[in-house]
C-alpha cells in the first residue's frame, strides 16, 4: 500500500514542478514582451531554479541579465536627474547584484552628484537645502571625504546667525537658529542646549538690567515683573529673589494689584505664580 501511494505522489510532484516551471517561463516571456526586463530576469531565474538543465531558461537568464542591467542603469540616471538619489542608489545596488564592476559606475555617479550638489548649495548660501542634502548624503555615503567639512561649515553658519541675533537683542531668533542644528544633527543636541542656555542667560541679564533701571526710579511693580520674566527665561535664583524683594516692598506700601500672567505653563512659570501670591 505504501509503495502504491508513493508511486501516485511522485507523478503529482513532477506535474506540479512542471506546472510551476511553465508558469515562471510564461511570466518571463510576458515581462520580456512588455520590456520589463528585471521582472523577466527574476521569472527566468525562478524557472531555472526549478529545472537547472533547461537550455532556454539558461539562455534567457544570460540574455536578460544584460537587459536588466541596462534598464536599471537607465532608471538610475533618470533618478539622479530628478534628485531622487535614494532610488538611484537602489538601482546601483541592483546592478551590483548582477555585475559588481558595472555597479561602480552608477553608484559612483550618485556619490559624485550629491557631493557636487551639496557644494553648490553651500556656495550659494542655501544652507537649509545644504543641511538636508548633507544628512541624506551621510545616510547613503557616510565615508564621503567632504562631509565633515560640510557639516562644520553648516554649524558655523547657524552659530554666526545666532550670535548676530543675540547682538541685535533678538534672543528667541538666536535660540531658533541654534535649534536648526539639533534638528538636522541630533548628535549635536547637547552642545545646542548648552549654547541655547547661554543665550537665555544673556537674555535674562538684559531684562534684569532693565529691571534694575526701574528699581532706581522706584518703579517696584515694573521691576518685579521684569525680574520675574528674567527668572522665567533662565531660572536664575538671583532674579527670583530680586522679584520677591520688590513684591514685599509693594505689599508694605499698602493696597496694590499685580496682574501676573506667565508666558507658558512650565514648572518655572507656575513657581512664579506661587511666589507672588500673598502670604
What is the first-to-last residue Cα distance? 100 Å
The amount of helix comes to over 70%
What coarse outline follows from CA principal-axis ratios? Answer: elongated
Low-pLDDT stretches:
1-16
User: What does the radius of gyration come to?
Assistant: 35 Å
SSE sequence, one letter per element: HHHHHHHHHHHH
Mean pLDDT: 86
Major sheet details: none
**Content-based structural category:** mainly alpha
Q: Give the DSSP E fraction (strand runs of 2 or more residues).
A: under 5%
User: What is the count of helical runs?
Assistant: 12
Work out the number of β strands.
Answer: 0
Task: Provide an overview of this structure.
The chain is an all-alpha fold and 279 residues long. It contains twelve helices and no strands. The protein has helices spanning 2-33, 37-50, 55-81, 85-98, 100-124, 127-140, 147-167, 171-184, 189-216, 220-234, 237-252, 267-276. The radius of gyration is 35 Å and the shape is elongated.
What's the SSE blueprint?
Blueprint: H1 2-33, H2 37-50, H3 55-81, H4 85-98, H5 100-124, H6 127-140, H7 147-167, H8 171-184, H9 189-216, H10 220-234, H11 237-252, H12 267-276
Short note summarizing the structure:
α7 runs antiparallel to α8 and α10 runs antiparallel to α11. The chain has twelve helices and no strands. It has 279 residues and is mostly helical.
Amino acid at each position: 500500500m505504501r509503495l502504491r501511494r508513493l508511486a501516485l505522489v511522485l507523478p503529482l510532484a513532477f506535474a506540479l514542478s512542471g506546472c510551476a516551471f511553465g508558469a515562471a517561463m510564461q511570466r518571463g516571456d510576458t515581462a520580456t514582451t512588455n520590456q520589463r526586463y528585471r521582472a523577466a530576469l527574476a521569472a527566468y531565474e525562478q524557472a531555472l531554479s526549478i529545472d537547472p538543465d533547461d537550455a532556454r531558461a539558461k539562455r534567457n537568464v544570460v540574455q536578460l541579465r544584460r537587459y536588466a542591467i541596462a534598464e536599471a542603469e537607465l532608471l538610475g540616471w533618470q533618478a539622479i536627474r530628478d534628485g531622487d538619489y535614494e532610488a538611484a542608489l537602489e538601482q546601483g545596488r541592483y546592478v551590483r547584484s548582477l555585475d559588481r564592476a558595472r555597479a561602480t559606475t552608477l553608484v559612483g555617479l550618485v556619490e559624485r552628484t550629491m557631493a557636487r550638489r551639496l557644494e553648490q548649495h553651500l556656495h550659494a548660501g542655501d544652507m537649509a537645502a545644504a543641511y538636508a542634502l548633507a544628512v541624506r548624503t551621510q545616510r547613503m555615503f557616510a565615508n564621503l571625504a567632504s562631509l565633515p567639512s560640510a557639516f562644520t561649515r553648516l554649524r558655523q553658519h547657524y552659530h554666526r546667525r545666532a550670535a548676530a541675533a543675540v547682538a541685535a537683542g533678538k534672543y528667541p531668533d538666536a535660540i531658533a537658529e541654534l535649534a536648526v542644528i539639533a534638528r538636522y544633527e541630533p548628535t549635536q543636541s547637547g552642545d545646542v542646549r548648552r549654547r541655547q542656555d547661554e543665550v537665555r542667560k544673556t537674555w535674562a541679564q538684559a531684562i534684569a538690567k532693565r529691571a534694575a533701571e526701574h528699581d532706581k526710579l522706584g518703579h517696584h511693580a515694573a521691576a518685579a515683573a521684569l525680574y520675574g520674566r528674567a527668572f522665567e527665561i533662565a531660572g536664575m535664583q538671583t532674579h527670583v529673589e530680586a522679584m520677591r524683594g520688590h513684591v514685599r516692598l509693594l505689599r508694605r506700601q499698602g493696597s496694590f494689584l499685580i496682574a501676573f500672567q506667565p508666558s507658558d505653563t512650565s514648572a518655572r512659570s507656575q513657581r512664579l505664580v506661587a511666589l507672588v501670591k500673598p502670604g
